[in-house]
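Exam review. A common question shows you a sequence with its structure tokens and asks you to describe the fold in words. Practice with the pair below. Do the first one on your own.
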Amino acid sequence: MVYVFDDFDSITEAEFQLLLKCAGKDRRVKVLKYKFREDQVLSLVGYHAINYAVGGFPILEYGLYGKPYVSEDFDGAFKHFNMSHCRMCVAVVADDVPVGIDVEEIREFDPGVMKLCFTDFEKQQVMESSHPEDSFYLIWTLKESYIKAIGKGMSFHFLSVEFDCREEVPRCSDKAFQFESFVYKEKYRISCCYKDKN
């Protein structure tokens, strides 16, 4: 299940305070450490979206590289989840297998990032695309979702995995995972990675 929220302007101060009150103490402290209100709202909405997605307020545990997961003692709908946010958009995915998600606003990109993080084949796909910005963020979000699904964070090198996005369903060099990607409101590219259930 994927959940997306981007209507931050609709959250009133009273609603913000209620969401804050309903959050756990650790989350409240984390939210209020952010200097800007936008970041506070992103953190708080993301927290509640995760709880909604997994079916309750779980006890979280953390993997070797810091990826959170739901404790085995939790009796909610899903044990695995992941969250991503960019400016004014939060996306959450939950499932019964390891998952990862990434959301990015489709905009002009830095070619230097592509040189460092994309294989030659991936660069070729972007450069030959009729919509290079979307193609860039398609591959970027797929890579990010994969790295988040495997739980290795930034210790994993971007060039260690390659994507073929010439067909409707993206294909990955790591066959143990499945992917889906879509554009939300013609503004955000969202990609999800799931450990293959088969």
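Now try the second one, then compare your answer with the model answer below.
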Amino acid sequence: MRKHHISYEGIVLEYNLVRKNVKNINLHINNKQEITVSANPSVPLKTIEGFVESKAKWIIMHIAKAEQLIQTAPDGNLYEGKEVYILGKKYTLHFKYGNYNIEISGDNIIINIEKDCTDPGFIKNIYLGFLNKKAELAFNEALLSMLKKVEHLNIKKPSIYIRDMRTRWGSCIINKNKIGLNLQLIKAPAECINEVVLHELLHFVYPSHGSDFYLELTNLMPDWKERKNLLESDFKDGI
């Protein structure tokens, strides 16, 4: 792999060139916004440079958009005045010195920590534990509510396990009669939690996302798309 670059309207684009047995010239941008181009050893460098130049406008727009998303994404730190969510409600974090404890007071969440605690990771773990307790109550309430909706399907009550996940809201382990729910769900309103729980319950009857699955989901929850869109677009605080 060798580094090369082209210039497009005064902007220098550096890319890694990988020579391998491929039919076409391929271009990939990773999460670090590094550009990699793969091409057959028989393809002249001038041809590759022309290909990269033809994609230059798209590359620049892609990288700019990615950097904008990074800048606007909520950070994962806990600090005085940070806004966080629980069950769709926005709270402001405040810190006090005392025995480790977290309490809700009106629109505020008060985190009590000992004076000598300087480890942000330790404090974050305490907060995640606090969220987990809230999630256990809310998720089980949602499960009981959604089980009533599917009584006609004779679904046996599954157990719930909670994980802090970044890519999935829920999962269903049919052979173990378990539903996995993302801890991040506790930040959304009950209506969004219900949508995810109902979705996973229906997988015990409809394992795949076929037409029968979505027909049943729509019959039981006609506004499931709106709930899902709300979940995807809001209630993110980075923690």
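Model answer, second protein: Helices lie at 45-54, 56-72, 120-149, 190-202, 211-220, 224-233. The two ends are 38 Å apart (CA to CA). Full marks require stating both points clearly.
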